[in-house]
């Protein structure tokens, strides 16, 4: 069952008309640019509103990226629209989200590969010693 977007959730997509302003730069987000939106809550009007960012500007702001990761990992917030992005942009967002896990995986892979190389070198040395 799909749940409705809630305050603090994220939505990603491409800017349709270039009429939304980036909350960081205060400039219009160009048409077809990757846009990330944080769903806000206006308690006075009891309504949701979008806080839009040009993804290229947003990704440079370490504090916003940190809040994004915490919202997804710790608070269980959702990202809507990722399935509608092209594969390259999906990958960019997933790498951003899982970079800590990815770095851990790559470190383990490197460690494993180094062990195998050492083992292979030892075996090669043993074979060379036995054949001499």
Write a compact overview of the structure shown.
This protein has 132 residues and is an alpha+beta fold. The protein is 46% helix and 18% strand.
Mean pLDDT across residues: 80
Q: Using the alpha-carbon principal axes, give the shape.
A: elongated
Gyration radius, rounded: 23 Å
Please provide the ordered H/E string of secondary-structure elements. Answer: EEEHHEH
Percent of residues in helical segments? 40-55%
The fraction of residues in strands falls at 15-25%
Tally of DSSP helical segments: 3
| Biggest sheet descriptor | 4 strands, mixed
Distance between the termini: 70 Å
Q: Care to describe what's here?
A:
With 132 residues, this protein is an alpha+beta fold. 46% of the residues lie in helices and 18% in strands. The protein has helices at residues 55-58, 62-73, 87-131, and strands at 10-14, 34-42, 47-54, 79-80. Strands 3-2-1-4 form a 4-stranded mixed sheet. A hairpin with a 4-residue loop joins β2 (34-42) and β3 (47-54). It is elongated, with a radius of gyration of 23 Å.
């Amino acid at each position: 069952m799909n749940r409705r977007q809630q305050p603090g959730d994220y939505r990603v997509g491409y800017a349709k008309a270039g009429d939304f302003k980036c909350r960081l730069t205060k400039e219009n987000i160009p048409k077809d640019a990757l846009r990330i939106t944080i769903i806000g809550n206006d308690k006075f009007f009891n309504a949701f509103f979008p806080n839009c960012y040009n993804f290229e500007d947003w990704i440079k702001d370490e504090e916003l990226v940190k809040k994004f990761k915490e919202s997804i990992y710790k608070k269980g917030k959702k990202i809507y629209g990722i399935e509608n992005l092209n594969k390259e942009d999906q990958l960019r967002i997933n790498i951003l989200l899982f970079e800590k896990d990815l770095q851990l995986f790559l470190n383990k892979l490197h460690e494993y590969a180094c062990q195998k190389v050492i083992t292979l070198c030892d075996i090669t040395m043993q074979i060379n010693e036995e054949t001499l």
